[in-house]
Amino acid sequence: MLNALTIDVEDYYQVTAFEQSIPRSSWGDYESRVVRNTERLLELFELHDATATFYILGWVAERFPGLVRRIHEAGHELGSHSYWHRLIYQLEPREFREDLIKSCDAIQDISGAKVKTFRAPSFSITKRSLWAFEVLAELGFEIDSSVYPTAHDRYGIRDANRSIHRVETVQGELWEFPMTSIGRGPLTVPISGGGYFRLYPIKATLKGLHSVNLRGEPFVFYLHPWEIDPLRPRPPHGSRISRWRHYVNLASTEAKLTRLLQSFDFASVSRVVSQHNRDECNGHRLSLDVAESETVKDL
Question: Taking the chain, what is the end-to-end CA distance rounded to the nearest angstrom?
Fold first, then answer.
């Protein structure tokens, strides 16, 4: 079974945990390592014949257009990760729309490829920001992969549908490929990647992801380029828990990723969604009654 491999292309100083102490106006002052780390990921994916979706921050795309071209020329899918890495539920719909257009314009102008899939910074499409689906549908996006069916202090919809499903909006339909979690009812364990991947023993991760495939469903895996870089600078910012989440087990991530690539078959989000049995998804529609929302009326 094909599973979705995704990379959120941002640098170590652009994470949400540091946004209060590293203003966006100072991003250019920090040593960038996003190119070298992303190129290492490209090498690993080529070695293991894996194709991925790279959700690229528009700010990164504009400053490193050669990286965007290399990703595209290697046969990977290009997606948007917004431009400024701002949490969706902290934005007005108009602000989100403008940010999204700016991000897509940057990626498309460089690559010539249409951007049709999106991932919100820090999975910030939550119950507070379901209006974002309206904006995505309006702008022609076909797939979103932002909803995390779990509980977290910054993101998550605990009772969200865990399977690939269609989202209906006034502006049209799109597919949601939610982040992968296991468990029953409200007791869910997130296993999609990132900090969870770094924290859990690799055998536990492989077993959990295999269980998803055994029930006939693909999983989606995500990682950031900085997570394979244990020698990267470590700004003394963020809370103690944020720093722990950010730095835990960086030294072992690449070896774990290699095990993962050896254990499963991976493709882009669009390919996995198109291959998935859509008939099974018809019973899992999420109807969004956002037409009456004051925020959507402001679009």
Answer: 40
